Amino acid sequence: MPNIDLQVLKEPSMPQGEADVLDTLAKALNSSDDSAVVAANLEDELRQLIALSKSTKAADTLLWNLWVMLLEVVRIVPIEHPWHAALAAGMNNLRSRGGLVVELEGCTLNWADLPDLSMYVFDKWFDATELDDYTSEDIDAWKRWNSFASQLLNEEYMNWIIFPYLEIRSALEFPPPEDPTIFECRLWIATQWLTQCAELVYSEMTCGVDLEEKTKSAIKPGPLCEGVYPRSLQRWEFWRERLEALAGEKGLEQETDSGDGGAGRTIPSASLSRIQQAINAMDAASNNARV
Q: pTM score, two decimals?
């Protein structure tokens, strides 16, 4: 698969820190055809770049530059391109190995926390399908963001555990929107989170710990799942039942008629395949939890 020219992201007014980060990302991404090697090189190159900072404040600023440019790169790299997985793996390498960002007295910035990444992601998290004039590029970029974020979420990095709730709710707990592009996009994203993070989400939803009122309000179920406790096995089971209802029983293409506004809608075979993958992941997660 051909490489992508990241220089298209450069602008004349770009801060030097962002330009340096972009050059570092481009160097590492173009360093090999092997995704694992690229991920390792990403980690090494970024560690070296930030370590050159002369102060903790300078390192913090450069980290912010990193997150800005990283997510800009994620937006333009297709999910099927090897770079997409390498970018996620590189960040996971940084987090799992940890270590101080800079070896300076008083520095507490540690790669294990991916400092400020979640702050930037939360600030920029926005469903492109809510725009009146969304484009296909907006849809693609939103899918890429969700795919990337889902690959970083794990037991050691729970900073955006709220995202699966929000995106699955959007797709499965509301009547399907009339616009088929919006419906397919939201369904794609919901199945991505369920397929990638099924075990983690199942563990969350069955932990039995009460939620704070603020969190309970933030992840409250949509109208099709009204009255269900936000973090519960009942909600998990609703999601699975909803996926089965959308898939129907005929296999490749099915007209939905579930009484929820989806009557007469054709589910494309690609979406049906993703639905089945999500169901399989959900079943595996619940079965593994019982072992």
A: 0.93
